[in-house]
Amino acid sequence: MTRITLSRRAILIGGTALLAASPLRALAQGARPAIHVLKDPDCGCCSAWIEILQDEGFAVTTEPSTGIELMRYKIANGIPEEMASCHTARINGYMIEGHVPVADIRRLLDERPDAVGLAVPGMPYGSPGMGPESEREAYNVFLIRRDGAAEPYSKYDAA
Fold it and tell me: Which end of the chain is less enclosed by CB atoms within 10 A, N or C?
């Protein structure tokens, strides 16, 4: 009969290796939410919105897309034409259209509603990436339902 003895060091090394290879690794490292953004490569306001996401701890990847190609992507993923803005993102199965504030994205991820995602139609001045918040014009963030209906999700008053 063979007897196996393990040292404390072997157990610690083995446990560390298991953690490193497990899905818990992301939690142990303080995983950042991954968001993928399709945008015009020359758009400065899209880049400013991406910087805000990065500063708030999101892991952002980008993909260049323009014109008809970008609009087809939006429509194929449930964004109604009247909700369109300049960039489109995907995070944890949700679509994020336009200059949606980080607080609303985090709320969406916490609440997990049965929806396509969030949209800020157009490009309201003072929304994230669109100029100083201190000069913000009033705008709404909309929740886009799976049937294409949109309802107010949050409201930002003029500054």
Answer: N
